[in-house]
Amino acid sequence: MQGLSPVASAAQTFSLATAVVFLVVGVVLSVRRGRPHPLLLVSISAASFSWIEAPYDWAVYAQFPPALPRMPSWWPLNWTWGGGVPESVPLGYVSYFVIPAVASVAVARWSSAKFQWRIPLSLLTIGLLVGTLWAFLFNGCLGARAGVFHYGHVIPGLALWPGTTHQYPLYDCLAMGVQMMVITYLLGRTDSLGRTLIDAWADARTKSRLGSSLLSVAVVVVIGNAVYLSVFAPHFITKVLHMQTIAPAGQLYPGVPNQPL
């Protein structure tokens, strides 16, 4: 992508390619089983709450390279500073949230079989730990350290590398960890028929496979959005209260003023 660093270009390409793979595999598996596969359900859920990215960016003072293509002005609450939310976000959310969820489910099931842990607790615990670590590596290291994006303001005492262009708010990776924990649970909590808990609930309340499938999609979208709004809420509060007072001395990107406090 012209004007972007090699790292930023590679991250964008990997994110979009992985999302397409997840969606295609999810559709194929869904066709084979005659109903939405859990992989497709969580992929749809992730894409559905991507509209919250823009207000989330605004609340945590996230800024992106000016060369990064952005979504048009009609995008909901397009508050991301410097031109709006990146156009890769809707598909990018699929790879960002589903990659750690798939890994977490595999580790949780192995842990449950190895140590006789209850699968619900294993999914939630592993999902939170892996999700938080993934968010730290992606947002804190690949993002803030490598310059794929930066955070203009952080809360004192709750960030790494404060006062530099690479500063990273630790509360961000915890929030993402909670979201990924829920995605992991939705993906991995299945019954003997391979149905998610949402599928089983939908089957009991509808009379057709189509009705059950549509209800499953609707519910997983509502859950994904509700949880993401709940992890966004604390960031919104700290933003409104002007608690993020630590900022780097210079501009994060040449020619683009930093988002004001």
Keywords:
8 helices, globular
Please render the helix and strand layout as text.
Blueprint: H1 6-33, H2 38-48, H3 53-60, E1 62-63, H4 89-115, H5 119-145, E2 150-151, E3 159-160, E4 168-169, H6 170-188, H7 197-203, H8 209-240
Antiparallel strand pairs: 1-2, 3-4
Describe the overall structure:
The longest helix has 32 residues, at 209-240. With 261 residues, this protein is mainly α. Helix 1 (6-33) crosses helix 4, helix 2 runs parallel beside helix 8 (209-240) and helix 5 (119-145) packs across helix 6 (170-188). It is built from 8 helices and 4 strands; from the N terminus they run αααβααβββααα. The chain is globular and about 60 Å long. It has helices at 6-33, 38-48, 53-60, 89-115, 119-145, 170-188, 197-203, 209-240, and strands at residues 62-63, 150-151, 159-160, 168-169. The chain is 61% helix and 3% strand. It has a two-stranded antiparallel sheet. Strands 3-4 form a two-stranded antiparallel sheet. The chain has a domain at 6-96 and 132-168 and 208-240.
Strand content: under 5%
Structural class category:
mainly alpha
- Strand line-up across the major sheet: 1-2
Q: End-to-end span in angstroms?
A: 31 Å
What helical percentage do the residues reach?
55-70%
Rounded radius of gyration (Å): 19 Å
Q: How many helices?
A: 8
User: Overall mean pLDDT score?
Assistant: 94
Largest sheet: 2 strands, antiparallel
DSSP strand count = 4
**Low-pLDDT regions:** none
- Global geometry: globular
SSE sequence, one letter per element? HHHEHHEEEHHH
